[in-house]
Request: fold
Amino acid sequence: MVCIRATEASTLLGMDHAAAVAADRAVSAGDLSVVVTSVSSDSHTWNLVVLQLVLEELGHRVHNLGACVPDELMVSECARLRPDLIVISSVNGHGRHDGLRLIGKVRGHPELALTPVVIGGKLGIAGPGSDRSRAQLRSAGFDAVFEDGSGLTAFQSFVGQLTASVVR
Amino acid sequence: MSHPTTGSFGDFVTRAQRAGRLVVQPRMGVSDPGAMRSGLLATRDAAATTVGTITLDSYTRMGDNVNAHAALAAGVELNGFPIVAHDVAITRAVLDGVVGADFPVQIRHGSPLPETIVGALIKAGLHATEGGPVSYCLPYSRVPLVDSIPNWARSCDLLAEVRETGVEPHVESFGGCMMGQLCPPGLLVALSVLECMFFRQHGIRSVSLSYAQQTNPDQDTEAVQALRQLAAHWLPDLDWHIVIYTYMGVYPRTPNGATLLLEEAARLAVRTGAARLIVKTVAEGYRIPTFAENIDALETAAAAAERCTTIAGEVADTGIHAEATALIEAVLDLSPDLGTALAIAFRRGYLDVPYCLHPDNASRARSYLDSAGRLQWSSIGSMPIRDVVGHTGSGQLTAAGLLASLSYVERTFDNASLEQEYRAAPAGEVPATPPPRSDELTKEQSR
Reply:
């Protein structure tokens, strides 16, 4: 497994550096409560560390669940924290598979039926997936899918819209 | 149980070092036994002094042998060799006539709970592995340290029993790698030493201390020299050697940049008197390497080591030795039992790995790259190194700054590669986009 980790470290988030620079400048008053998490099979964490910083720089509060989060732990922590947004990031190539399983469990919990949930990273083993794969994840219950190479801007703009729409 | 022809891993490396040859080693693992055997044979036959590696798959690493079995049954290819799921006769057949006193094979796995894996490798006639109760627990799992530590203790005890069969078992600490990047060297050195002391407490007499190439060659040289001095001081009664890991962070994507970085690692090993080098390949930046790419990397590294005759003299002391000493002594003061001491040390934040999200890590320490590409602390949390480190407070990294730091080595070596191409190109054939100047890079990385 060591070789996989090293290989996939090459693309931390499926986002390019230029896009991340923009994150630095985009300061807004956020104040969403956000859970950032990996999936059960994924031991990578640099992607989670960077996402936490991106969200904190937008003014949001982040609860980072870390690596290899079992489905049940993720659901129970989210039910306890009742966040405004759940961000699932996976870069080991099993994200699509794990995500499809996980979202059913999230949506099955009464507290989390309507919570915005997004997924992103390197979701398949053969590079960015097809439109069909994204549509599949959307129809399974994800509010947005951000794949390798789509950059941070789309994610930031999603979070921005969410910030504006949450009545506090 | 017999260990017919398998010589000890530590002996082999020591003999090579005495003969002035750097031992080079790949990371390599596939689920198909025939292919695994071919990979070992190719490693053995490379034009280099090599030891073999069997890297295990992620199901086995996670202890999920049910899924490993299912994958084998379904003919699904795994990302490593499932040594627990495979019948022991299969593993023995892979090794038969390949492994021996002149070609030891090490199991590399990544597991925080390796007892079952260690049991399987012993049954297969092997006796060398790597990892550690901290280094394979904190960065890649959420297993509590209080579970990982006793499991590693039992694994070492089990491995130590192999000595009765006439061969000296060997364990390498992965402590010199923590998170792959952005961990300042003092902590890497301390963890390598502490884990090897833990192995010794559980009966292991032959160990290796690791150090992963970081971001600045002078800082790396100072770190490995400190590691040698501390190993000599704290492990005087053991057979030990130092193993260098070629850069473990975001890897250059140009073949030339990747090769330059590997050669730099080989030179680091030679000039610091390290005995062994784990290589990376030109494919590292984007996929799992093929056997052929691995063999190329072994031969490239061996040739670079051969060409390098410089043995480093005294390097400027920036305090790595003192920092590591302070950390080691603080941990040893906590309990005579190393396992207990390590658990308390993390609970109190005396050891604190920057950017590590594991629930048992205090996560108050932070690091950054300075304008010379040296790793520095921006916050030491509760680690007892204030006297050594002095004032910190360069501010927290932004997301953009963190991404720039994580890709610093990739950019430096890819740009060096592009610059070589640019200079080599005949007039009128210059690449469309000239590489950025080095001062521009410096600005970017220090942001």
Notes: Chain B is about 45% helix and 10% strand. Confidence is low (pLDDT under 50) at residues 1-5, 430-447 of chain B.
